[in-house]
Amino acid sequence: MLEEAGEVLESVLKASCLPLSFLLFVPAVLLLLGPPPAAEAAHEFTVYRMQQYELGGQPYGTRSAVLNTEARTVEADVLSRRCVMMRLVDFSYEQYQKALRQSAGAVVIILPRSISSVPQDVVRQFMEIEPEMLAMETIVPVYFAVEDEELLSIYEQTRAASASQGSASAAEVLLHTATANGFQMVTSGAQSKAINDWLIPSVEGRLTGLGGEDLPTVVIVAHYDSFGVAPWLSHGADSNGSGISVLLELARLFSRLYTYRRTHAGYNLLFFASGGGKFNYQGTKRWLEDNLDHTDSSLLQDNVAFVLCLDTLGRGNSLHLHVSKPPKEGTLQHAFLRELEMVVASQFPEVKFSMVHKKINLAEDMLAWEHERFAIRRLPAFTISHLESHRDSLRNSIMDRRARIDTKALIRNTRIIAEALTRVIYNLTDKGAPADLQIFTDQMQIQQEQLESVMDWLSSQPRAAQLIDKDSTFLNTLEYYMGRYLKDVKQHHVKADKRDPEFVFYDQLKQVMNAYRVKPAIFDLLLAVCIAAYLGVAYVAVQHFGLLYKMIQRLSLKTKQQ
Questions:
Q1: Is the pTM of this model over 0.90?
Q2: pLDDT (tens digit, 9 = 90+) per residue, 108-128?
Q3: Residue 124: which H helix or E strand, with range?
Q4: From CA 408, how far away is CA 448, in angstroms rounded?
Q5: What are φ and ψ of residue 189, in 5° steps?
Q6: SS3 string of 497-532?
Q7: DSSP one-letter string for 7-22
Q8: Does residue 158 contact residue 72 with C-beta atoms inside 8 Å?
Q9: How far apart are CA 10 and CA 402, in angstroms?
């Protein structure tokens, strides 16, 4: 029997009998066409989850973090329980809503490596969409990923598969579904949960004025935290990295003036880098409560001349002084407004300056500007910014990166504020100093390299409030920097009340996602049918081996005769 089988095999090889060759070698072909090696069948990349928090009892963002579903793009007809992949350049709010309406399993938005390379119309469109995405609470996990070659390849393959399903016939769709490769998207983390006892830190420092104990105090405030649709992607270069950089430069300049008795002014300068600014100014709120309600001796209780809040000062040719109540003539607040107008008009005529009056709306979930926290406690305060409206989308966007900062505008705005503030606390105008007198020149000039390096440091890292605790490297560096120029530098902390928390943060904001190359479930059915057919043919061939042997002999003889 074995000899006959050997003869049959030899005859098959010599005669190139196609049906039997197919029968014998199809397993080898299937092995060759099998799944790719493990290194090519999976790709691991980092993803950043959309915001999830509660503010004043109102939830925002996405409530889910777990993902284990097959990838599709918006071109597919059916998105239910699928991971919908979108590229930023093709992203629209309508597509996002479509995915949510169809109960998508997840949404992954792919960002380019360099935000600066994105067309400005795409950037502006996405900045306007971000608040709407956060306002629409959803159970669908929403992630952001930075593109790489492998991820773009996965996207293009998924897009091609999704598009072909929408335009092909039913038979073509069935065949494509059975033979095409798909990608299973899986996150490695657990479901998100609330972070208990999270502290929001702030940093305070001061320069004590020369003279008696009851000196007026000028408070200079800027919040350091950033905000965007995804915390780990929120670098906040302009909002409010520029505000903090101006605050630190003012601390450096006035520390030099306060070093010498001849230039030591009769004003206390209190600097406050607040945390939780993007969450209704929680750091400032608690700081005011601690200083006004829970202590008997505080610079904020004694004699506050005014509070100057710095917010978004890194670009543009305009400056706006936002007030809740227009300052009255004869007050230091009005003097500062007058000095700002004078410095801009005489030294920087290209800058458009205006005062913007907006009453405090306590019915809103969020206060418009940081100075409103002080105004509520009846402290004279205003915010200076190049933005005319608090609703500008730049204040809360992951698109706010270092490339958007105009260094010349930042230096100019720093100088305008420093010149006006100096003219107030030294009373230079009443002493006859000309309007075009430039104070910060030569050795006292603003240091461009230092201001740029501070701006680079601030914008090189995400500064979302959920990512910065009292022991973070960022906060320690900020505290050290302020300690170089200020006295009595210390931290203040805010912790949400356990019974009725004003804010609640959640974890799982950064995860690792794996994309596994998989075949669809129908492929297993098709493969089972093919294997059954193959085994059936093999079984019939074995059962009728004698007949098969004779047929092969006849074919072999014909071949030899030819």
A1: no
A2: 999 999 888 889 999 999 999
A3: helix 120-135
A4: 9
A5: -90, 175
A6: CCCCCCEEEECCCEEEEEEEEECCHHHHHHHHHHHH
A7: HHHHHHHHHT-HHHHH
A8: yes
A9: 74
